[in-house]
Amino acid sequence: MRRIILFDGVCNFCDSSVQFIIKRDPNGAYQFAPLQGETGKKLLNEFGLTENLDSIVYIEDDRYYKKSAAALKVCENLGGVWRLFVIFKIIPTPIRDIFYDIVVKNRYKWFGKKESCMIPSPEIRSRFLE
């Protein structure tokens, strides 16, 4: 099963989120690719997401999810207490995405920005697509 998380590679909040997921995914079900990288761009194009995307994108096999739907899908697959976040699916997606967009719009101001994408440690390098 293909499970890929596309993320903003220069965003500190996004980097922290990736590290959070890695710690809770000991079986290595998820792979990661920065939106700015070659694989990220290729996958966005493959799914017709060529607009200026400013969102996490979660790809599972031949389907994609973005914004709050992607975040909830990742939580669902993490299992444990994180699976409880699926309760937020009762809130209509447009309303969930309003809150998601507020965080996205302010993420650099609130959490900072890096000059370049993170370099993964050798232990998790294989989970990152270039």
Task: Based on the model shown, name its key terms.
alpha+beta; four-stranded mixed beta sheet; 40% helix; Thiol-disulfide oxidoreductase DCC family protein
Summarize the structure in words.
This protein has 4 helices and 4 strands. The chain has 130 residues and is an alpha+beta fold. Strands 2-1-3-4 form a 4-stranded mixed sheet, sandwiched between helices. A hairpin with a 2-residue loop joins β3 and β4 (63-66).
- The number of helical elements comes to 4
Percent of residues in helical segments? 40-55%
Note the overall shape: globular
Strand order of the main beta sheet, please? Answer: 2-1-3-4
Helix/sheet category: alpha+beta
Instruction: Please trace the helix and strand order, writing H or E for each element.
Output: EHEHEEHH
Instruction: Kindly state the number of beta strands.
Output: 4
Question: How many individual domains?
Answer: 1
Rg from C-alpha positions? Answer: 14 Å
Describe the biggest sheet? 4 strands, mixed
> What oligomeric state best describes the polypeptide chains here?
single chain
What low-confidence regions span 5 or more consecutive residues with pLDDT below 50? none
Quick structural summary:
The protein is an alpha+beta fold and 130 residues long. Helices cover 40% and strands 13% of the residues.
